[in-house]
Amino acid sequence: MTIAHAPGKIILVGEHAVVYGRPAIAVPVTQVQARVTVEEGEKEQGIVIVAKDLGRVFHVGQRESKSAASPLQATVVNVLTYLGLSLEQDLTIAVESSIPIARGLGSGAAVSTAMTRAVAEHFSKKLTAEEVSRLVYEVEKLHHGTASGIDNTVIAYERPVYFVRGERLETFPVGRPLSLVIADTGAESPTRIVVGAVRRAWEESKERYEALFDGVGDIAVKARWAIERGEVGQVGRLMDDNHRLLQDMGVSSSRLDALVRAARRHGALGAKLSGAGRGGNMIALVTAQTGEQVKHALEAEGADGVIQAEVEASKDLVPSPASSVVPEEEQ
Ligand code: MEV
After folding, report:
1. Ligand 1, atom nearest to 165 Cα
2. Domains, the chain, ranges and CATH?
3. Distance (Å, whole) CA 112 – CA 153
4. pLDDT one-digit tens code per residue, 18-57
5. pLDDT in tens, 269-281
6. What are the helix (H) ranges across 39-87?
7. Which of 27, 173, 293, 314 is most buried, by the most CB atoms less than 10 A from its CB?
8. pTM for this one?
9. Which residue's CA is the closest to the ligand 1 atom numbered 10?
10. Cβ 18 vs Cβ 150: under 8 Å
11. Could you identify the atom of ligand 1 that is nearest to the CA of residue 146?
12. Whose alpha carbon is nearest atom 1 of ligand 1?
């Protein structure tokens, strides 16, 4: 039996604007994981996918048209085809995940990543992180239309990324650890729907939305600079600024705003919604002293699950070449 995993993800700054070509920063969240096992099946059973959390079973066959396939089926078809392997296999693929669905934690991309890795490993094939990311992006595009590619990238590489749509991936050093508290509103919010709503709003008021996206892009550049230099307080302030712009874009909600306010009141350095918004998760940047009290405050405010996550400081602190992108006031 072959087993593969993939972590969840959280966007620190830059969601939505990243769909329109601005930079964004995301980090993996290893506290939640997708896990996929592949084993040889009975003769002639074909490829059977058991989605344990959904309580559903899918079959993969030659007839699967790409667009009609579920993300799970499309993932298997894509990876087998990419590896030059036949779809006429007898395999049982079991999928489970502790990543809440449609809450901004990258559950779809994580399941697809774990599945791509497990199938490749089962056939003793090695895939690079770039290959995995590309294959998962194909599935993301099929089901989320205008996905920027940030989810598959941060999850396949499993390290903090500074992401610009369509450009080569940049990783960057983290000067001091970042402690995060991630709280769930309990409301599902499918990315495709919120991204579609922002698209319609952008079509109606292009100038206003382009200005909002520019503001978010600026924040991402400054946040990278601050993260590299370990200026954690500045990262928090930038997260607050980003939340205000997301409110202006119309993707926050009263639940998200209440959780963000509670986190700030109890000592968070900054807080914002994360992911598509309208529901899903918010994140707060905390310190060793404030982490527990922010967590309890979010629980008291009615959060439906709170995760504490840590972005480790890099051992190698040489900033990558793109840190020549210096925020204006630092020049
Ligand atoms: C979803 O995790 C982040 C969005 O920016 C959509 C995307 O980048 O594909 C809302």
Report:
1. 8
2. 2-163 (3.30.230.10), 173-330 (3.30.70.890)
3. 12
4. 999 999 999 999 999 999 999 999 999 999 999 988 889 9
5. 999 999 999 999 9
6. 71-82
7. 27
8. 0.92
9. 276
10. yes
11. 9
12. 275
